[in-house]
Amino acid sequence: MRETAQVAGGADDDLIGAIRAGLAAAGDPERAAGQQRYMKSTMPFHGVRMGQVRRIVRAAVARHPLENGTQWEATIRELWDDAARREERYAATALARHPSARAYRTPEVLDLYRHLVTGAWWDHVDEIAAHLVGEVLRFEPDAVEPVLRGWAEGEDMWLRRTAILAQLRSKDGTDTALLAHCLSTNLEGSRFGSEFFIRKAVGWALREYAKTDPDWVRRFVAEHCERLSGLSVREASKHLPLS
Predict the structure, then answer these.
(1) Number of C-beta neighbours around residue 242 at 10 A
(2) Which of these, 134, 203, 144, 207, lies nearest to 173 by C-alpha position?
(3) Which terminal Cβ of the chain has fewer Cβ within 10 Å, N or C?
(4) For 29-41, what is each residue's pLDDT tens digit?
(5) Phi, psi (deg, nearest 5) at residue 194
C-alpha cells in the first residue's frame, strides 16, 4: 500500500512528482535555451531530449502504476495544465501513449485529446493526431469519424490539423471519404486554408497516403488543383509524379 493516500479517481501525485523530479534532474540549461528559441515557446524548457522524456515517464510509471482510466486521465490533465516546463507536456503525451493505458484509449478519451490539442502548437498536435487520435479512429471508426468531421470544420486551427493528420499511420485502413472531407474543407479559401500549418498538413497527409494509394492522391490533386496551395502540391508529389 502506498504511503501517500490518493483520492479515488484523482491525479496520482506520486507519479507526477516522480516525473517532474526526473525531468528536472535530467535538465541541461544550455540545451533548454536553444529548444525554447527553436520552438518560439513562451514556456521554458528543462533541456531534456524527447527520448529521455519517454524513459523518465516509463520509469516513473513502473514505480507508480496507475490504478484506472480515471486516474490516468486526471494525471495527464494535471501534468499538462500545471506544466512549468514544456517537457512536462511532452511527458503528459508520453503518459497518454503508455502501453499500460491501452484499455483506456477509447472514444470517450477524445475530450481529453481535444483539451490537449486546442490552442497547442505543432509539436504537441502532430504526435497526438497521428499516434493517439489515429489509434482510437482505427479501433472505433464509427464513433470517431463524426467527431473528426466536426473538428475538420471547427474554429480551432489545431483541431483541424489534428483531423487532417489523424490517418497518417492508417495505410490501407485509411477511410478515404473521411480523409477527403478533412482535406477538402481545409484548402485555400477555407477558414484556415492559407495558414502554413494547414497547408503543410494537407500536403503531408497526401504524401503519406500516396505510399499506399498513389492513384487516389493523383485524382484528389487533379480534382482540387485550383484550391491546393503550392506547398501542399509539393509535399503531395514527393513520392509520385502527378503529371
Answers:
(1) 14
(2) 134
(3) N
(4) 999 999 989 888 8
(5) -95, -5
Neighbour tally for 129: CB within 10 Å: 29
Single out the residue of 236, 210, 205 nearest to residue 134, CA to CA.
205
With b for 16 or more beta-carbon neighbours within 10 A and e for fewer, the 145-161 pattern comes to bebbbebbbbebbbbbb
With 0.85 as the threshold, say if the pTM is over it: yes
The residue whose grid cell reads 500516396 is 210
User: Could you give the angle at the alpha carbon of 50 between the alpha carbons of 52 and 173, nearest 5°?
Assistant: 120
Kindly report, residue by residue over 148-162, the tens digit of the pLDDT: 999 999 999 999 999
Q: 54: pLDDT confidence band, cut at 50, 70 and 90?
A: very high
Whether 239 contacts 214, CB under 8 Å: yes
Cβ density class 113-125: b for 16+ within 10 Å, e for less: bbebbbebbbbbb
CB atoms within 10 A of CB 54: 17
